[in-house]
């Protein structure tokens, strides 16, 4: 814009007023600030949730075990099962709590403060794992359990901010960049932490102490980088209560009233419901492949720890590029077609896994690259695609259902994997059996009428869908 543009009389219809429209710049700044939360929490998810917590807590619990059993809330549990039970219980509680929290987030303009509060409570809870030493596994279990709950709550608020800082045409790009930053941040800290754990003798640390320090570093990283969105995101006024119709009373009374109303209204948005059902299946398939990959690599393909660690890092860094590539593909072909293409690749991945040779390093690494390419992309686009089907003013509410579906049903895939292994005594058919989740998810997604869903929700239809 040239300076001469400011010569028009102020207030003349259809002419500039002499003040440049700075909203696109402000929006770009907010988007950059928002990316940092994916960067912040992914370090915890990868270092603690994916890699270090389970083996560490199992080792600590074994120290305390009597007849190879510890007591978890009065239930006798094998130390080896402890992480799985903690994930399961925190997942079920999240699925119940998150939909109650969504309307509260929608009723506040200060979402960034809510996001930061959940993030910092999560990081503080996760830091308790540092104090799990000797045979004191309980404090580590409590810290991990609470951190999982707060992480889920923070992700609902974070995802609900996406529609507030991007318009419909830009959403796939913004969501994909967030996921890409997450994989990059998570991968960088994980690389450092795995070096510390692997070379612990060099640093004068025991392996346990190296693991504890690494998990603490992930919690500190999560807390520290959350300051960027906390300081740089803007407040966004919620849709007025008259429109959202949450009823009278305080914010919590209004929020519970709003949740009941939304549950009754859900059938009015059948496209959003259809997508949630499709997401339930294909996301469960994705999560189970990721959760089972290291077991498959060690037990079936006989790879050592160093190969598995290298592959985890490879997937992280390839997923950074994969998320950006999928964002570009969505701009050209639309997010639905791009997600469907990703699901076809997932089907090829689990089929290829059936035939991988024992100790075949190159094929295993190629499979890791393929997983990295589609991993970030499919999940990033699922988030932005769903955001188009959400009525304005109810972003957190609908994303709380989205995350509740994600968490509340995430045991289907692991159950199928476990049952097939039990029946066949081989991980090959077990991992191939997961193809059913991608097939069902893809078929359900094919039935989703994108344009109708966007119009039902009262949103603008992007140029490319």
CATH superfamily: MFS general substrate transporter like domains
Helix content: over 70%
Regions with little confidence, pLDDT below 50 for 5+ residues: 1-18, 241-247
Instruction: Kindly provide the name of the CATH class.
Output: Mainly Alpha
Rg of Cα set: 23 Å
In percent terms, what proportion of residues is strand? Answer: under 5%
**Largest sheet at a glance?**
2 strands, antiparallel
In what order do the strands lie side by side in the largest sheet?
Answer: 1-2
Number of strands: 2
The helix count comes to 18
Order of helices and strands: HEEHHHHHHHHHHHHHHHHH
Outline type: globular
Write the layout of secondary structure elements.
Blueprint: H1 23-64, E1 70-72, E2 75-77, H2 82-106, H3 111-127, H4 137-165, H5 171-198, H6 207-225, H7 227-232, H8 241-244, H9 251-265, H10 270-300, H11 305-333, H12 335-354, H13 361-388, H14 395-408, H15 412-424, H16 427-432, H17 435-446, H18 450-456
Antiparallel strand pairs: 1-2
Main location: membrane
Membrane topology: Multi-pass membrane protein
Keywords: Membrane, Transmembrane, Transmembrane helix, Transport
Condensed summary:
It is globular and about 65 Å long. The chain is mainly alpha-helical. It has helices at 23-64, 82-106, 111-127, 137-165, 171-198, 207-225, 227-232, 241-244, 251-265, 270-300, 305-333, 335-354, 361-388, 395-408, 412-424, 427-432, 435-446, 450-456; strands at 70-72, 75-77.
């Amino acid at each position: 814009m040239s300076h001469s543009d400011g010569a028009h009389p102020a207030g003349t219809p259809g002419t500039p007023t002499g003040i440049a429209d700075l909203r696109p710049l402000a929006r770009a700044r907010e988007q950059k600030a928002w990316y940092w939360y994916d960067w912040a929490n992914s370090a915890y998810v990868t270092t603690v949730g994916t890699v270090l917590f389970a083996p560490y807590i199992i080792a600590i619990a074994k120290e305390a075990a009597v007849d190879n059993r510890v007591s978890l809330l009065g239930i006798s549990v094998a130390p080896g099962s402890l992480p799985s039970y903690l994930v399961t219980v925190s997942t079920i509680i999240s699925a119940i709590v998150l939909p109650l929290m969504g309307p509260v987030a929608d009723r506040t303009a200060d979402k960034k403060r809510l996001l930061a509060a959940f993030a910092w409570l999560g990081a503080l809870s996760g830091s308790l794992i540092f104090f799990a030493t000797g045979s004191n596994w309980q404090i580590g279990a409590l810290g991990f359990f609470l951190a999982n709950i707060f992480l889920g709550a923070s992700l609902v608020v974070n995802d609900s901010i996406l529609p507030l800082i991007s318009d419909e045409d830009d959403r796939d790009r913004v969501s994909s960049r967030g996921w890409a930053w997450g994989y990059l941040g998570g991968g960088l800290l994980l690389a450092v932490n795995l070096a510390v754990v692997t070379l612990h003798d060099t640093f004068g640390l025991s392996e346990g102490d190296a693991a504890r320090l690494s998990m603490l570093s992930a919690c500190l990283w999560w807390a520290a980088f959350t300051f960027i969105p906390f300081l740089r995101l803007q407040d966004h006024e919620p849709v007025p209560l008259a429109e959202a119709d949450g009823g009278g009373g305080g914010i919590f009374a209004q929020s519970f009233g709003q949740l009941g109303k939304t549950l009754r209204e859900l059938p009015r948005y059948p496209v959003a419901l259809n997508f949630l059902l499709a997401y339930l299946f294909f996301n469960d398939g994705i999560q189970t492949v990721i959760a089972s990959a290291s077991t498959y690599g060690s037990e079936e393909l006989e790879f050592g720890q160093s190969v598995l660690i290298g592959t985890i890092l490879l997937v992280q860094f390839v997923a950074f590029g994969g998320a950006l590539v999928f964002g570009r593909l969505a701009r050209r072909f639309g997010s639905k077609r791009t997600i469907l293409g990703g699901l076809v690749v997932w089907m090829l991945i689990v089929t290829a896994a059936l035939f991988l040779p024992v100790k075949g390093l190159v094929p295993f690494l190629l499979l890791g690259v393929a997983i990295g390419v589609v991993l970030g992309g499919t999940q990033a686009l699922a988030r932005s695609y769903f955001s188009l089907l959400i009525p304005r003013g109810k972003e957190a509410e609908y994303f709380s259902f989205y995350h509740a579906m994600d968490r509340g049903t995430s045991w289907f895939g692991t159950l199928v994997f476990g049952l097939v292994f039990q029946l066949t005594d081989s991980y090959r058919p077990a991992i191939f059996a997961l193809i059913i989740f991608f097939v069902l998810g893809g078929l359900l997604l094919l039935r989703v009428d994108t344009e109708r869903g966007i119009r039902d929700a009262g949103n603008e239809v992007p140029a490319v869908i």
